[in-house]
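Reopening this ticket.

The earlier resolution said the output was attached, but the attachment link was broken on my side. Pasting everything inline this time so it's all in one place.
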Amino acid sequence: MTRKEIISLILLALVILVGIYKFVTAEYEYSDSKYLNYTPTLQGKNLKTEIYILSDKKNTASLTEEAFSYMQGLIYKLSDDYESSQVYKINNSNGVKYPMDEDIFNLLEMSKEMYELTEGRFDISVKPLYDLWDFDSAERGNDAYNKTLIPDSLEVYTKLKLVDFSKIEYNRDYIILPQGMQITFGGIAKGYVVDKTVEFLLSKGAKAGYVDQTSSIRYFGPINKPITLGIQHPREYSKVIAELTNLNDMAIATSGDYQQFFDVGKTRYHHIINAKTGYPCHNNVSVTILSGSAFKADALSTALFLIDDEEAISYLKDFNDTEAIIYNDTFDEVNQTWDAISVKTEKTELSKGMEFYLKNEYIDGE
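Inline output:
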């Protein structure tokens, strides 16, 4: 065999090896978005959801579709409006034992932790109170009409008697919800659904990606491209107030008083209800949590919204890799402008501090 033939064979072998390497290490990516509904009958109440996955298998499109179906089924299961859901059945169990479900148990355990953290201000048995508030009918700028949407104080007082998480009896086998009480997981379920969907994707062979359900998002695996995520400005809705980076394997959740609300004069009434008073709280306007778990981030963003910002930041000091940025507002009467004030977690032995993830902050919303 001539030298030229040997070189040709070597080159051919190299080409084949490169081809095999590319085949073995090939990665396929796919992304899609859908609107998922709270219940089959409430098509107007929906959640914009986006899924992006990276896999060494070609079935990324079909896997994404499977993940959407999985999410939708879990949302239905945890809805308090859907008659076939676990939550609806518990709410209508008339004070007798109802068999426990694993997802319900997990949500109850997190609810208990947040209830204790906020000394009862976060309470999943708030549903009778929440149902008094009709945020869907609100008309922006129509103070006279919106004033009629504020519940009568006597109604609020009456429903407050039905709110008390400590009266719920449960274990891994059953739950007993006292007669007249009702629960809702609206403040924490979104993050739970996101985490469970990530688990589903990983079990089906996804290597990396993200699941984004509007105000709750989780990134997982080695995403080989820059990630930048904006936090919506609480008052100037077309703008962001901050940009986050370094988000690999992190989850982000934001709770704000600008998502479901109506204004009467200078008072904002929004959907995050203080279960101790029956009325929306006015401690903060936006709370964003970063954590390794979307479930924990979602629960904390809601619960910490209900307490003083400095107290919330202090609480997180003992958490591993959990950060927060909390916004309050002041209104400049002379210039008629909104000014933001932010409070952030600092670097500790347990965490990197919010500044590690903060790429830019636009306090003036520009």
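Reporter confirms the inline version is readable. The two ends are 72 Å apart (CA to CA). The first helix runs from residue 3 to 24.
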